[in-house]
Specification:
The protein is an alpha+beta fold. It is built from 1 helix and 4 strands, in the order ββββα. The strands form 2 sheets. A two-stranded antiparallel sheet has the order 1-2.
């Protein structure tokens, strides 16, 4: 959770969380602010990062995430 709430006055959204993505091979790091830790929002953000042509990333064969609740649902397969 962010220590200071980032308030976007133009879009009227309040961002409370940061998603940090680190690619171990290319050492690429990216941080994106999120409104919630909903698994769909997290998945859409990861998809947006990987599909951005400016990034040196290719989709991994294995996406490793921690065991937090935001990764259950769209990112978690039983």
């Amino acid at each position: 959770m962010l220590p200071h709430v980032y308030d976007d006055q133009e879009r009227r959204k309040v961002y409370l969380h940061i998603l940090v993505l680190i690619d171990m091979v290319t050492r690429f790091k990216c941080a994106v602010v999120l409104i919630s830790k909903n698994s769909l929002e997290v998945w859409n953000t990861i998809e947006k990062i990987y599909n951005d042509f400016k990034n040196p990333l290719t989709w991994p064969a294995l996406l490793m995430v921690d065991g937090a609740d935001e990764f259950k649902g769209y990112l978690h397969e039983e």
